[in-house]
Design brief:
- Two copies of one chain form a homodimer.
- Chain A is 67% helix and 0% strand.
- By secondary structure, chain A is mostly helical.
- Chain A is globular and about 60 Å long.
- The termini of chain A are far apart.
- Chains A and B meet through helix 6, helix 7, helix 8 and helix 9 of A and helix 6, helix 7, helix 8 and helix 9 of B.
- Chain B binds a DNA duplex through helix 1.
DNA sequence: CGCTCGCCGTTAGTGGTTCTCACCTAGCGC
DNA sequence: GCGCTAGGTGAGAACCACTAACGGCGAGCG
C-alpha cells in the first residue's frame, strides 16, 4: 500500500515538493505571498499543473496546517515530561517556525475551513498530548471543575485546568514574542519566559 | 485647523466613510474580503476614486490598526483601575471587535509595515496605559528586574512585570477565545477567564 | 511485445484583485 | 467671473485563483 505503483510514488513526491516550496514562500513574505503561480514557477512547471495535486489553494493550506500540527505535537512529545521542558519545547518550535505557528493559531487565513473535521481532530490530538504529559495543577473552583469534567471526559479536572492554563499562557507569550512585540520594545524575552514558566509550576 | 475649509472637511468625512465601510467588510468575511473595489462599490463610487483618499490598501489597513489601538486603549482606560476590571474591559473589547483584535495582534497581514513608527508608538501608548493602571505584582528575579528596568524607564520593575504578565496572559486567553478554540471544545470560557484573572492578582 | 487508457502538463481564457495613467468636470477661492 | 485644483471616470497593466480543452507520453494490461 505504501508503494502502490510508480505513479503513486511520483505523485506523493510531487505533493511533498509543492508543500516544501509553499513553506519556503511562507517563511519569506508571509501568508499573502503564498501563491499557486509562484510555487509552480519555482518548481519549473506552469500554473494549472499544480491542480493535479491539490484541489486548490485551500486544500494546500489545510495540508500545511495538518503537517504543522503533527510537527508541533511531535516536538512537544519529544520533550521530557516536566513542565519547564514542555514549555521550552513549545516555545522553541514556535520560534523556529514562526510562520507555521501563525498558520496554526494566527488569523484564520483559511478561516472558513477552520472547522474542517481533520483540523479539529488534529487540534484535539495536540491538546491530548498536554493532558498526557502535564501533572495536576491547582484544584479548580466548583463551576470551573464542572465545565472541565464535561469537556475533558475522564481526565482529572485539575490536570485539564493545568493543561489549558499552560496552553493559554504559553500561546500568549509565544504569539507576542514571534510578532516581535518584546524585541521591538527592547525587552529580552528569555528571563520573562522563565518567570512565566515558574509561575506555571 | 480643524475646519480648514469645506474641501478639507469633506475629505475627512470621506476618509471616515471609507474606513467605516472597510470595518464593515472586515467584520463579515475577514481580512481577505477587504477589497478596495468592494468598498468603492459600497460607497457608490468606482475603483480608483479611493486612491484620492488613501495611498493604497496598506495605508488603509495601517489607519484601521491605529484606530483600533486608540479604541482599545480608551476602552481599557475607561475601566476602574482594578485588575479584574481592566482584564474584563480588555476581554470585552476583544469579544466585541474580534476582527479588529486580530488586526492588532493576529497575523501580520500588513506584516512588512509592522514596524511603522506610528504603529510602534501606538502599541507603546497602549502598554503605557497598563503601566499607569496596574499595581505592583511579585518582585521580579534580579536578571528579569534588570531587563525590565532597562526597558520601562522610570517605572517600578514590579509594576512593569505585572503589566507585561497581564498583557501576555490576557492576550493568550483572548486570542484563543475569539478564534473559538474554547467553544469548539464545548468549554465555557467564562469561569476559566475568572480563574486566570484571579491568578493575576 | 504492443496497445490503450489514464495521468500529466500545456496554452488559452474568465473573472477577480490592486494600482497607474490620462482625461474631464465641477466647484472653491480669489 | 474665472482659473486652478481636487475629485471622479474609464482604460489598462500586472498580478492572482481557477476552469476548460487539448496533446503527448508512458505504465501496465492483454
Amino acid at each position: 500500500m505504501t508503494a502502490g505503483g510508480i505513479r503513486d510514488r511520483f505523485r506523493a513526491q510531487m505533493r511533498q515538493e509543492v508543500k516544501d516550496a509553499a513553506l519556503r514562500q511562507l517563511a519569506e513574505g508571509g501568508p499573502q505571498a503564498l501563491s499557486i503561480n509562484a510555487i509552480a514557477k519555482e518548481l519549473g512547471v506552469s500554473g494549472p499543473a499544480l491542480y493535479r495535486y491539490f484541489a486548490g489553494r485551500d486544500e494546500l493550506l489545510t495540508e500545511l496546517i495538518l503537517d504543522a500540527y503533527a510537527d508541533l505535537t511531535s516536538a512537544v512529545s519529544a520533550a521530557p515530561r516536566r513542565m519547564p521542558d514542555l514549555a521550552g519545547a513549545y516555545r522553541a518550535w514556535a520560534i523556529a517556525n514562526p510562520h507555521r505557528y501563525r498558520l496554526l493559531f494566527g488569523a484564520p487565513l483559511p478561516g472558513w475551513n477552520a472547522h474542517d473535521e481533520r483540523l479539529v481532530a488534529a487540534a484535539r490530538e495536540a491538546i491530548d498530548v498536554l493532558f498526557a504529559f502535564v501533572g495536576p495543577g491547582r484544584e479548580p473552583e466548583p463551576p470551573l471543575a464542572e465545565a472541565l469534567r464535561a469537556w475533558a471526559g475522564g481526565v482529572d479536572p485539575a490536570v485539564a485546568l493545568h493543561a489549558v492554563t499552560a496552553w493559554s499562557r504559553l500561546h500568549g507569550f509565544v504569539s507576542l514574542e514571534i510578532e516581535g512585540n518584546f524585541l521591538s520594545m527592547g525587552l529580552d524575552p528569555g528571563p520573562f519566559f522563565a518567570a512565566e514558566v515558574e509561575a506555571l509550576k
